[in-house]
Structures are given as C-alpha cells and as structure tokens.
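Per reviewer request, we include the raw input and output of the structure prediction for the construct analysed in the revised manuscript.
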Amino acid sequence: MRRLYGNLKQADGSMALEYALMLSVGVVFVYAAIQIFEPGVGFTEDIGKPLVAYFQRVLTGIALPVP
C-alpha cells in the first residue's frame, strides 16, 4: 500500500506540469485568434487575409488529383 501511495505522490507533480503546459498552449492559441480575427470586423488585413490565402493554396494542393 505504501508503494502505491508513493507512486501517486510522485505523479502529482507531473500532472500539475501537464496542466500548466496545456493551459499555456491554450493561452497562446487564444491570443493568436484574437490578433487574427476581430469580432464584428472579421479577418484583419495584415494577418488574416494572407493566412486565408495560404490555407486555400494548401487545400488546393491537397485536392489535386494524383494520377
């Protein structure tokens, strides 16, 4: 029983670290979304439209038929 409890105590730190890393990744994505898309306006001129054009080119390349 002591071994099981000891292993659980060791896992607490790694679980907290995983939670902190996932939270920081989420914050980065939310910040990027706010910078690219403005509610009520749509995609901004300087970042959004080139990003949309890039993804359209990627999707066009994926959709090309391969003989």
